[in-house]
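User: Just a sanity check before I run the rest of the batch. Below are the structure tokens for the first item. I only need the designed sequence back.
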């Protein structure tokens, strides 16, 4: 039975400290007695002591663990380690698999994306944007909703951090910021913890780095003139 999630899903939906600890557990052979059940996996994961752990096959963040966090319905490193094992089945992780980017950064290299890569990148962005959605549920699912926002921003951070620097990609990022701004202003996104807003501010910093590496990028910023945004993120770009 293959899970309905992959390693990327686990990685982007988990905070960096928890994911890194889970990877260490997996790589050090701490996931033992792995078994497949009916729509779920179980194992003994060795932490400070052996813990009986389960995680569902359709949701990597649904499960149970005997540790303190698991007992309080919090996704713990033991559940994440088991989810990783369910995907990898003991196979080694590549360095890329273990790398989690939580904030967008400039790649520092100049150049343009070929037409095919640009089209693919736009598809990845659209896919990641689906996690940044309207909040309309009861208060009990608020934390799950916030996790979805974080996952979307993590996925976008990876995409941005791999882009070359050029006027072409600067336009891509400005368009992304405008789409996110529209979601915050009119799309019903509950960003009360600042996840999306913080990501947008970090992306603005990436664009300021773009302008230093390739001054032609500033031409794209002119698109922001006379735009009314949620919190004035465009102001620093218009000053370049």
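Assistant: Here's the designed sequence for the first item:
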């Amino acid at each position: 039975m293959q899970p309905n999630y992959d390693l990327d899903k686990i990685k982007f939906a988990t905070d960096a400290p928890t994911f890194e600890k889970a990877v260490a557990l997996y790589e050090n052979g701490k996931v033992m007695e792995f078994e497949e059940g009916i729509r779920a996996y179980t194992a003994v994961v060795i932490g400070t002591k052996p813990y009986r752990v389960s995680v569902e096959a359709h949701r990597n963040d649904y499960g149970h663990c005997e540790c303190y966090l698991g007992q309080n319905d919090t996704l713990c490193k033991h559940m994440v380690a088991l989810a990783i094992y369910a995907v990898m089945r003991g196979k080694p992780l590549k360095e890329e698999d273990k790398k989690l980017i939580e904030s967008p950064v400039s790649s520092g290299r100049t150049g343009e994306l070929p037409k095919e890569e640009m089209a693919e990148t736009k598809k990845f962005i659209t896919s990641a944007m689906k996690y940044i959605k309207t909040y309309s549920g009861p208060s009990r699912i608020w934390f799950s909703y916030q996790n979805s926002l974080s996952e979307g921003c993590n996925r976008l951070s990876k995409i941005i951090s791999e882009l070359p620097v050029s006027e072409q990609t600067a336009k891509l990022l400005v368009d992304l910021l405008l789409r996110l701004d529209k979601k915050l202003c009119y799309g019903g996104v509950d960003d009360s913890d600042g996840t999306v807003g913080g990501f947008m501010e970090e992306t603005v910093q990436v664009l300021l780095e773009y302008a230093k590496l390739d001054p032609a990028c500033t031409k794209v910023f002119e698109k922001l003139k006379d735009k009314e945004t949620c919190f004035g993120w465009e102001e620093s770009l218009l000053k370049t």
